[in-house]
């Protein structure tokens, strides 16, 4: 069995190699099955038909159960948090720096060893306690010095538990986990997605060493809103860039180009539309192909998808066929275009021959 390299296979598919079919020729799956490209087993051809599209129903994206099952517990104080402890009717304890100072000046920092100091209470281990548990301990200790103390504890700066962000966000500053649970939607909203460069379909949430791939576009499609996913300390959010997510539209289209896309629902019709559509003068409607998987044909057969687009109704099928990153959309030329190109290539050669003959004639004179 002869293995065809990726570049050679694409060249042959679009007719540059000349061993399969020339661009612009119509070739049916049955004809392709008898061709040399099909016989080596590394390339297969599939017609885009209503039956094929019906069998390729898209599976709706679902959120992993473990992500949906996570429910945040009461916030537990951590190292680096700054607390504001109020002892009602005792401003000398609540605001030793003076009531006119900013709240942060009277805050109590949880030290790197997890402890904090408070007058008449001394050193107390705050790390790992809930706000209510710490309030209870302070009340118990200070009651030896203050009669019926009314104690309140609040966190004015969260410095211990954070979520990190990376990728195609406008703002990638770490976001704190606070006493108010943080959801994925809130975190993404605060970070602001880059509307041009983000790949919404490739979003990755990493938690405790495990990666969860979430298609944000699919989850929020059709007017529905994805259910909230609560984040936990240490989560990492990555929004990939779409610069490597390209579809290449070449051949007889108005504007051949490599186009990026940020969702999973770019269809063949949309791709052709962005390229300006089929060239009305040079394209052949029978010759719309999508070439997929040539670079990985050593692992699985590459596929040529064929759309017969002789009538506008065919684009209804194209609107149901979803292209993927790396696909090559090729539109072949009509027969008259191939003939004109042949003539255009032949004429310069004939001119050279004629000039040479004329020169020889002048020399002989």
From TrEMBL:
Residues 161-238, 245-331 form the SLBB domain. GO terms for cellular component: cell outer membrane; pore complex. The keyword Signal applies. It is a multi-pass membrane protein. One of its GO terms (molecular function) is porin activity. Keywords: Cell outer membrane, Ion transport, Lipoprotein, Membrane, Palmitate, Polysaccharide transport, Porin, Signal, Sugar transport, Transmembrane, Transmembrane beta strand, Transport. This is Polysaccharide biosynthesis/export protein.
């Amino acid at each position: 069995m002869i293995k065809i390299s990726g570049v050679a296979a694409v060249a042959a598919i679009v007719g540059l190699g000349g061993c399969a079919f020339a661009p612009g020729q119509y070739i049916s799956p049955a004809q392709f099955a008898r061709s040399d490209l099909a016989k080596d087993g590394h390339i297969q051809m599939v017609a885009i038909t209503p039956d094929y599209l019906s069998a390729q129903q898209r599976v709706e994206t679902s959120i992993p159960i473990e992500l949906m099952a996570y429910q945040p517990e009461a916030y537990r104080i951590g190292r680096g948090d700054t607390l504001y402890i109020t002892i009602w009717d005792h401003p000398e304890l609540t605001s030793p720096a003076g009531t006119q100072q900013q709240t942060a000046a009277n805050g109590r920092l949880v030290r790197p060893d997890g402890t904090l100091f408070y007058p008449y209470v001394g050193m107390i281990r705050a790390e790992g306690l809930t706000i209510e548990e710490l309030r209870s301990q302070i009340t118990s200790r200070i009651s030896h010095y203050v009669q019926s103390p009314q104690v309140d504890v609040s966190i004015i700066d969260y410095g211990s538990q954070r979520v990190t962000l990376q990728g195609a966000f406008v703002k990638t500053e770490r976001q704190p986990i606070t006493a108010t649970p943080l959801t994925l939607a809130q975190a993404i909203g605060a970070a602001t997605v880059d509307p041009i460069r983000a790949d919404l379909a490739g979003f990755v949430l990493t938690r405790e060493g495990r990666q969860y791939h979430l298609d944000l576009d699919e989850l929020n499609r059709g007017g529905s809103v994805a259910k909230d996913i609560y984040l936990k300390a240490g989560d990492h959010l990555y929004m990939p860039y779409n610069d490597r997510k390209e579809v290449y539209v070449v051949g007889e289209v108005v504007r051949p180009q490599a186009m990026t896309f940020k969702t999973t629902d770019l269809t063949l019709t949309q791709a052709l539309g962005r390229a300006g559509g089929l060239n009305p003068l040079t394209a052949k409607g029978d010759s719309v192909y999508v070439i997929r998987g040539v670079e990985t044909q050593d692992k699985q057969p590459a596929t040529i998808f064929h759309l017969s687009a002789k009538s506008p109704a065919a684009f209804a099928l194209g609107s149901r066929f979803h292209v993927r990153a790396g696909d090559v959309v090729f539109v072949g030329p009509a027969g008259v275009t191939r003939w004109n190109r042949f003539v255009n290539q032949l004429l310069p050669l004939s001119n050279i021959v004629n000039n040479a003959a004329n020169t020889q004639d002048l020399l002989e004179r």
